[in-house]
Amino acid sequence: MADVTITVNGVTFRVPAGTNVVDAARIGGISIPVFCYHPRMKPVGMCRMCLVQVGTPRLDPATRQPMLGEDGRPVIAMMPKLQTGCTTPVSEGMVINTESDEVQFAQKGVLEFLLTSHPLDCPVCDKGGECPLQNLTMAWGPGNSRFDYNDKVHFEKPVHLGDLILLDRERCILCARCVRFQDELADDPVLGFDNRGRNWMIISKSDPPFDSKFSGNTTDICPVGALTSADFRFKARVWELSSKPVVCTLCPVGCNLSLDMRYDQLMRVMPRENGAVNDIWICDKGRFGHRFIEHESRLTTPLIRKGGHLVEASWDEALALVAEKLAAVQSSRGGSAIAGLASPRLSNEDLYLFQKLFREYFGSHNLDHMPGSAADVDYDEHGALMGVGKGTNLMEMGAESLVLVIGADPEEEAPLYVLRLRAMLERGAKLVVANMRPTKLDRSATTRLYYQPGSELAFVRGLLRAVFDRVGHERLHLKHSGLEQLRKTLSDLSVEQAAELCGVPAETIRAVAQALLEAKQGLIMYGAEARSAGAGMSESLGVLAALTGKVGKPGSGLIALLPGGNSRGALDMGVRPDARPGYAVLSQRGLGAREVWPALREGRVKAVWIAGLDPAAQLPAARAALEAADFVVVQELFLTATAKLADVVLPAASVAEREGTYTNAERRVQRSRQARQAHGEARPDWQIIQGVAQHLSELSVPVAVPTQRVEESSQPVGGKGKSKGPGKTTAVTVAEPSTWDYLTPSEIAAEIAERVPGYAGITYSALAATGQGGDWGRQTNEAIFYDGTNYENSEGIGIQLPNLIEGQKTAVSLGLRPLSKPAHERSLLLVSQSLAYDGDLLLRGSLLERQIPQPYVALSQTDADKLNIKPGDTVRLDSAAGELTLSARVVDDVPAGVALIPANLPNFSAAAVQTGPRTRVNLVKVVTG
Amino acid sequence: MIGQLLKGLRTTFGYIFTQPVTVQYPEVKRPVRERFRGRHELKRFADGKERCIGCSLCAAACPADAILVVPAENTPDHQVSYGERYAATYEINMLRCIFCGYCEDACPTNAIVLEHQYELSFYDRRDSIYTKEMLLVPEDQGHGDAPPILTQLERRPSPPAQIDL
Ligand code: SF4
Ligand code: SF4
Ligand code: SF4
Ligand code: SF4
Ligand code: FES
Known about the structure:
Number of strands of chain B: 5
CATH topology of the largest domain in chain A: Rossmann fold
CATH architecture of chain B: 2-Layer Sandwich
Helix content of chain A: 25-40%
Helix content of chain B: 10-25%
Largest interface: A-B, 23 and 27 residues
Oligomer: heterodimer
CATH topology of chain B: Alpha-Beta Plaits
Shape of chain A: globular
Number of strands of chain A: 39
Bound molecules: iron/sulfur cluster, FE2/S2 (inorganic) cluster
């Protein structure tokens, strides 16, 4: 936008047109105090704190030119009254005065009025020390009050707005920032005003109260201590805290957090600005869900099973035992009798070393990062292969971009994406949400569509066909193979046929295809429900991105929402049975978690090492297998159900007690720092793995691998086993036997940068760059107005990886697997719904635990009527695998033909009925008595 | 020569007949001035409620970082002080303290006061940390009435900062 020239307090400078007076003055280094204005929200002019004198050049009515005075300068017509700076846009030649007596009188007046009903309990107020009201009163306010203290109104305090947020009505200055945040940014319009005059107050309108996944952010932006969090209430004064930069590992967004510590104790979690990831926000899961770090049930010492009991042991003892037992298995049965499962919440360094140990020492590819339930979905390749291009920044995207969200519920799977996508919409982006059932994001969508349950693949094929019909492959600027096959697959299914299969009208499919083609930038985000349709889904979405030219450039590509904070890292690091780090396919695959359980029971696998996963809690099969296993090592934070079955339990350090890097859904690698001392004797996972390796080398176990140098092509898995292009066989350097003497995780990161394709250049020093982390907290006196909001990012904003196509110029296989005909032997499709507040161990000890639901099965009204089921009835689900009894809910949002159960609840497992990621079930009411 | 010696000792001899200024500590203890800054006490109101509201301002003012306050929330059935907040932990490390009295100045409720006790010695450095139990005056030795605004317990308003207690 063009610039305009303005004069503030006699200083003339240029600012972008359309800026409001407050921001414009700040560009010139002049501060105008504000309360209700917030740069991320529309101005409303409620508090009158920003009053300034504004004048514009007087125009000659005849010529429309500015009239010139005798001195040859334009004549300025000052507005008769003071104007609110936050709602006044600048115009050419505008003259602003922020310091005149009149303005100062107004500023003092506004503050004096605000303080008439203010309790002045700064000494006990959680905002004290970072309170804009304190700051502005010191800088602009009157020195004393003429108001009699005893005339102040007093209200009962505090009022619970919800489980997590408390309101102190006496302190509220009614700026509506909280209300506007919920309405505009979070789209959870759960707050509102009630009453008027002195009784004007904020209330929660929802049931349950303050029902939002973003409620904690209102405590940040509240300019006073009116909103405080139950989590931090009266824990400490803010000046006692030291902020430690970490990365949230609770979901694939990877928000930048500040752990505010007093000495070694976690007091609260605050957002740390990162324009490319979380802006200045975090979700409630990240904010309140980090109490596990200090939970009293954390493991503190290694445990060894002696005579049926787990007894405390020293690290040396435990590591030596692990090495000895694993070496024994290896020498008697070979390395393939050892399996390793590592959680996707571990850091890249841990995961890399884990697979390295297995592949190098044991020569075993029996690796996985999933628990091995029937419901585990296929490894997601295309999120990396065709992932968003390097340089993608949602913060900078808006007009001319389109986001297709398919089979995902970002609010539950990766909450912060809701805020990011809504901010994009605000800037003019289009949002197409396609799901089998309504989700909250629908409210924001420009186009929302629902396909028949289980028909997402048909829907995407319809889109593909519509795209292909329009542009063929002219936008395909990638090295590719299998075009002929694609042409043939697509010709088998017309848009109309697809429309019929998926229940979305053909015109709509064509319109979405058209919109995707027209958009300059296109993101395709898919989540758990899409991935449960199988690898064919991400493959088809990848081809869709390729055909529409939405790949390999900034602002375009796929975003896969995977479970856990670092699933992408686990895939990149090759913690899977069929590929080495960097998606280099193995010619001979090992056993995945799902195959490990039967193999353990049959004795083909003897020993298993589980880092951070708890399969025994969910899977009876895993429990039986672990009981049958010869040797089980578990490396965990807590004594989980799995750990209780272990022969050796090793206490691991949590994310707060160690350094590491994590790769988020947009393939941004971010560095997390150590925030506190080790918990008891707990050690970082990489150290534990290294410790075992060192003991192994003392036992002089022959290193298994480096016999074949290049055993695989680096071609990423495309259409598996079909029509692969020649694929460049770049040398995947097989590690030389290494000495296992890493001193710090940064040394491992350096090795990853060297060895893992795509991670080149990702070193700790490079990750510390702060580049364009955003501009928060760097402007004139910003802290004064937005104190207590979030922290400036001084510790690095991370580096986005190139997707594999950009990075390696590998050929993409366009061949698609054929649509399989779903079998309909049972009436309902069992869909497990990922919830933000589920049985994740990491929520232990947090206030969110109360919000974890009891197990249930949700049905549509139609099905409930058909089966004569009422809410609360006990029902029995049966599938090809088994039976399960649950209480029923009848929910409007569930489409007919679907039985929805929450995934991953504590003390509940649907494993009894699941036959795969998708299960067909029958449902009957259980009549008791 | 003798004359010079006597001249030199004149002052000495003169003092032989005056009262000595030294006292036989520890049998005798010298009274201290009213504003002497000795060991701290945590005060109470006359009704026994603790004055400290757990605001940590003393800790913030302390130049020696000698004070640790860990606050907690009052509940209707566990009302330790007036208002919403009290100090669950209050510790002063007497080895760090330089007895400057800034904590006393900073306290909005006159809860922490440097009193006249100066006999602070310990065999173990750990013992130099005086806990809340050690610092708090007995329940019946409070003074002053809480201002009416603080006693309206059903509304649990917080103590105001600027009222002189
Ligand atoms: S909101 Fe600010 S001014 Fe008001 S009591 Fe709290 S710290 Fe003091
Ligand atoms: S609670 Fe805070 S953010 Fe909300 S209106 Fe009151 S002062 Fe503003
Ligand atoms: S959105 Fe995800 S990464 Fe961000 S704070 Fe929430 S759980 Fe953590
Ligand atoms: S007297 Fe001075 S040094 Fe001692 S605790 Fe108080 S403020 Fe700190
Ligand atoms: S009226 Fe402008 S900041 Fe409130």
